[in-house]
Design goal:
Length: 148
C-alpha cells in the first residue's frame, strides 16, 4: 500500500503578532479535511477499488497501473468525486472495457469508504480511540484561540 499521507506531527504555532479581533463574529471552516480527519485516507479506498475493477491489458504492470490511476485520482482531487469516477470510466473504455455508469462506481466507492468511517466512529463510541486522533493537529488550540 502506498503511504499517501505522511502524518504531520510537528507543532502548530500561533504567531506572537496574532491579536484577537473582537469584531469577528463568525469563522467558517470546511470541516471535512480542514478540521476533521475521520474521512482521511480516502485515496487508499479509491485506488485499490480502481485497480480491482480496471480491465488489464498487455504490458500492464501493477506499478504502471497504480501510478496511472493514482495520477488520475490526484489530478482531480478537490473536485467532486464523480469526476474521478468519470475519468475511471474513460480508462475502462480505453482498455476496451464496458464501463458502468459513473454513479455505480461512486456508490461502490462510498460504500467502501463508509465501512472505514463506520469503523472509526465505532472506535470513538466504544472509547477505543480518542476524538483527537481524527482532528487536524493543533486545531483545538486554534479553536480555543478563536473563541477568545
Amino acid at each position: 500500500m502506498i503511504n499517501l499521507v505522511n502524518r504531520f506531527t510537528g507543532s502548530v504555532d500561533i504567531s506572537p503578532a496574532f491579536k484577537p479581533r473582537p469584531n469577528i463574529q463568525h469563522v467558517v471552516f470546511d470541516f471535512d479535511g480542514t478540521i476533521s480527519l475521520i474521512r482521511e485516507g480516502w485515496p487508499e479506498i479509491m485506488l485499490p477499488m480502481f485497480e480491482e475493477l480496471l480491465p488489464h491489458v498487455e504490458n500492464d504492470t501493477s506499478e504502471s497501473v497504480r501510478k496511472m490511476l493514482f495520477n488520475d485520482i490526484m489530478t482531480l482531487n478537490g473536485k467532486q468525486t464523480i469526476y474521478q469516477m468519470i475519468r475511471f470510466c474513460e480508462r475502462v473504455a480505453e482498455r476496451a472495457g464496458v464501463p458502468e455508469d459513473p454513479i455505480y462506481y461512486k456508490r461502490e466507492y462510498l460504500r467502501r469508504l463508509e465501512n472505514k468511517i463506520n469503523g472509526r466512529i465505532e472506535g470513538l463510541l466504544n472509547k477505543e480511540t480518542t476524538p483527537e486522533k481524527f482532528l487536524l493537529h493543533g486545531v483545538l488550540d486554534l479553536l480555543n484561540q478563536l473563541e477568545k
